[in-house]
Structures are given as C-alpha cells and as structure tokens.
Amino acid sequence: MQRIVIIGSGTAGTIMASRLARLNRRAIRARTLSLTVVDRDGPHLYQPGLLFMPFGKYAPADLTRPRRRGLPRGATFVPAAVDRIDADRKAVVLEDGHELLYDVLIVASGSHVAPEETDGLLGAGWRERMHEFYTLDGALALRDALKRFSGGRLVVSIAEMPIKCPVAPIEFAFLADAYFTERGIRDKVTIDFVTPLDGCFTKPVATRELSHLLAEKGINVTVEFNTGEVDGAAGIVRSYDGREVPFDLLVTIPVHKGAAFVGRTPGLGDELDFVRTDPATLQSALSPAIFALGDATNIPASKAGSVAHFEAELLAPNIQRYLRGKPMVLTFDGHSNCFIETGHGKALLIDFNYEVEPLPGRFPSRLGPLSLLKESRLNHLGKLAFRWVYWNLLLPGRNIPFVPARMQMRGKRRPPPLPHSAA
Amino acid sequence: MTTTAGTYHTLTLDAEGFLQKPEEWTEDVGGEIAAELGITLTERHWQVIRFMRDKYLATGSAPSIRSLGKESGIAVKELYQLFPKGPAKLAAKIGGIPKPHGCI
User: Fold this and answer.
1) Which of A82, A161, A214, A335 could bridge A261 with an S-S bond, Cβ 3.0-4.6 Å?
2) Counting one residue from A and one from B, how many pairs have CB atoms under 8 Å apart?
3) Most B CBs within 10 Å: which of A227, A229, A271, as the mutation test of the B interface?
4) Cβ of A298 under 8 Å from any chain B Cβ?
C-alpha cells in the first residue's frame, strides 16, 4: 500500500487532500493507497476575512467552520501535533511518540505570527494600544480598540518580510482611512504606513499605483524601516538604525515563522522555519519524497491562498506521476492573484508570477470583466464573493473557471518604462 | 576611487548591482564592491560578510538584520557602524549573494 501523509489542514493542506482523494478514489477504496491528514483540531479559519474584522464587518462565526468538514471522504484525519520528520526512515514523528510512515509527505503547515521575536512587542500595551490582525483573538481585540479610538496617531507597521498576504497591511491602511472618514473623525487621525521594503510594495509598477493611492488618502509612508524594538509605554517604534515613529495605536504585522517541527527537523527549513522548497517542482531540498506548498515554503511567491490553490492544481497530478515512478511534468510559475481593498467599496486586482510583475489591464481576458491594478466596485464584489469561492470551490479542490493555474498574459498591458526616480 | 581592474562588472548582476550567481564571487570581487560603496573592509566586516554568505549558501535565504544581530556575534549598533545605511543589504551585496527581499 502506498501512503500519502499531509501535515496541515489549512488552505493548502485541505485543497491537496481534496484533489488527491478525488484522483485516487479507486485506490483508496481498494486500500492500495492511504491518505492521512495530521493537524491539531479546532476550527478552520477563513483567513482573508481577518482584514475586515477590526472594522466590524464579520463575527467569528462568519469566518470559521469545523476543520473536519472541509476534508474529503477518503482522507483519514489524525488530530495530533507533529514533533519532527525523520526523512531517512520516511516517518512523521508525533508529539505523543506515535509515528506516521509515508511514501510521499506533503508539508502544508503554514506560517504564524511570532510577536515574541520583536523586542518589547509583548510588553506594556500589547493588545491594548499595540495590536495585530493575523489571528482571530488579535483581530477582535483590534476591533474593540478601533471602536474606542477617537483620534491620534495610527501606525501600521511591518516588522519583517516575508508575511502572509503582503498586501494586507496596505489594505488595512486604506480601510482605516475609509473607516475614520465614515466616523467623521478622519481629520483627527494621522495614518502612517511603515515598511522594511524600499517602497510600499515589492514590485515597481504596483508600487507606483499604490503610492498614488496612499498619497491621495493622506497616508504617510516610511520605507526601509527595520523594526528593532517597540516601546508600548512611550508609544514608539524604533528602527535598528535609531529612527523613531511615535504612535497612539499601533497595528503591527509581526515576524512570521513556519511551523516549529520544521525547525526541529535538521535540513528541512531556513532560519525562519520555512521549508526550503524548489520553486518549480515544490520538492523540498531535504528529500525528494517531501513536498511543500502554501505558506509553509520559502519560495519567492506571495504567501496567499491563491498561490496554494494554483500550486495544488499542478502538484496533485505531479504526485500521481511521482508515485508511479514517472518524471514530474508540471512546474509552478509563482502565479498569484490578489484583490486589494482600497476602501469605500472599491478594490484593485493584481495577477502576477515569478517573472511578470503585476501589470495593468483586464482580467481574466481583454474583455474583463475585472480590471487589473485599477480601483473598481466589481473588484470589491469579487473580493467579497471570494469567501463563497473559498469554501465551495477552493477547499473542495475544484478549478476556478477561466483562471488556470499558470499565469496568462492575455488582457495585460505593459506600461511605458518607469521614470528613473520611481520605485 | 581606484580599484583593481574590475571583474565585478563583468559578472551577472541585477539592476542594483547584486550578484545573481553567488558562485561567481571571490573575496577580491567582494573587495571591489566594497570599494565602490566607499567601505574599507576590516576583519569585523569580513566576519559579517562570511556569516551572511554561509547562511545563504546553507539555507537559501539571507538573514535579516534582526537575526544578524542575534547570531553573527556583532551587535546591531556596530553592524550599522560597519555598514551604514543597511548592514543586511550591503553585506549581501559585498558577499555576492542576491538582494535579500523578504520578497513578495
């Protein structure tokens, strides 16, 4: 019997389980193949919804479902925590000492915020005037803090890259601008966006567009700011080179790390416990029998649900070939597709990969209906509709109509070259 | 500034002058890049550069300034004295490894 084990049942793990269960329905029934998913139990969280929660849009029940409900029949769920991987013996060692043996292992253990990595962040003022919105508890605490906020300096600050959904901090700043405008106190609030990058985004054309929008909305941007420490009592974020940004309310995007078992498995991860992964085949550097996808990897693509979806669409048939001893044929191109909320019921859409940065144009083709890198109401509706798509198409491992796994150039336009000073 | 006749600019570089193929790097090339940046390399500089490079070659990613401060054996304050305006970025450039992006 061939054994596939998946570590993690978040977005990436659940999609892979659904796809592999469907491709192997017969083999699973005939017991010539087993599919096991291991994860801690608890609700499955729709993470893109966390962005809206601080602004009072969703309650926890709107964003969570029982974990096992997302998993396909045919997959066995093992509720347990992983201690480490023994790659030589092809075994996943659980914290209770039990082992799961595998022929193919898929690491989909995601990433999590680690506020303890930044000096002072968990000190005085944490969850009072210093917040994050990457966890359910954090987003709820921030919602209450925003409700009480009647004016002052709001600072949105990225501690270090990489982070999940690299556009979320910019979206948060846009939504905060709209939120305070609607409350009629925008003139009493300053909004600062602070980033370690050398622009508000990583790619030049999108940086130019987003910089315009930030300026239009009166959001100040501080770049190349590497957060060294946070002083909650004084209300100051300090960079390693001694610059200071004062705040009354801090929304930080803490350092992100991969799962702790990755760090406990020699050779599997990098210094932040992200799995060292081939960007095309998604095979780990440690062993050809170990694959990784989603936020857990160190590949230079966004840590976003769309990436996990596109990766899974290519990886599932590749794993079928791998199990039969055939060469893998499909390669991942880094395709990422993200809506960017800009407030007041509008959003942008970006679509890009390892080679092609986000460009203006129409999506999914020249005829639209969505616009790339340009604000529209339809993009915003697309973002809201995505919650339905997530539970009903993504997790069950269905393809999204008109959006193939590999990025398409149709509908995209290359803008004139940037002036030298830009980006 | 005079440098030994350049191999640096004959190598595969990105738009900002970071080496794209770390295997093309030699210590002499490192010296050339440092000279262009106006940095005179001391043994303390080399300690940081070697740490960056080894870490990159072993893990495929360049350490951030935070982990440099924790693990390189040189405090952040001194790192900024050695490499004003960004130790992680400059040490990566001199050490011949790609620009640490934190990427997208």
Assistant:
1) A82
2) 58
3) A271
4) yes
pTM: 0.92
CA of B102 to nearest chain A CA: how many angstroms apart? 4
- φ, ψ of residue B48 to 5 degrees: the values are -70, -45
Alpha-carbon dihedral angle through residues A358, A362, A366, A367, given to the nearest 10 degrees: 160
Residue A108 CA: distances (Å) to CA of A17, A116, A259, B51: 10, 23, 9, 30
Question: By the CB < 8 Å criterion, does B98 face chain A?
Answer: no
CB contact under 8 A, A203 and B104: yes
Cβ A15 vs Cβ A55: under 8 Å: no
Position of tokens 């398409």?
A: A408
Q: How far apart are the first and last CA of chain B?
A: 36
Give the SS3 label for residue A147.
Answer: helix
Catalytic site includes residue B103: yes
Interface of B with A in 61-90 (CB under 8 A): 61, 63-67, 69, 76, 79-80, 85-86, 88
pLDDT digit of tens for each residue in chain A (423 aa)?
Answer: 999 999 999 999 999 999 999 999 999 999 999 999 999 999 999 999 999 999 999 999 999 999 999 999 999 999 999 999 999 999 999 999 999 999 999 999 999 999 999 999 999 999 999 999 999 999 999 999 999 999 999 999 999 999 999 999 999 999 999 999 999 999 999 999 999 988 888 788 899 999 999 999 999 999 989 999 999 999 999 999 889 999 999 999 999 999 999 999 999 998 899 999 999 999 999 999 999 999 999 998 999 999 999 999 999 999 999 999 999 998 999 999 999 999 999 999 999 999 899 999 999 999 889 999 999 999 999 999 999 999 999 999 999 988 999 999 999 998 776 555 433
Distance CA A135, CA A131 (A): 10
C-alpha span between A4 and A380 (Å, rounded): 38
Q: Which of A241, A307, A357 to mutate to test the interface with B (most CBs of B within 10 A)?
A: A241
Write out A201-241 in H/E/C secondary structure.
Answer: CCCHHHHHHHHHHHHHCCEEEECCCCEEEEECCCCEEEECC
Specify the length of chain B in residues: 104
- The three-state DSSP-derived secondary structure of B35-75 is HHCCCCCCHHHHHHHHHHHHHHHHHCCCCCHHHHHHHCCCC
End-to-end distance of chain A based on CA atoms, in angstroms?
Answer: 54
Nearest to A160 by CA among A151, A152, A169: A169
Q: Are A297 and A129 in contact (CB under 8 A)?
A: no
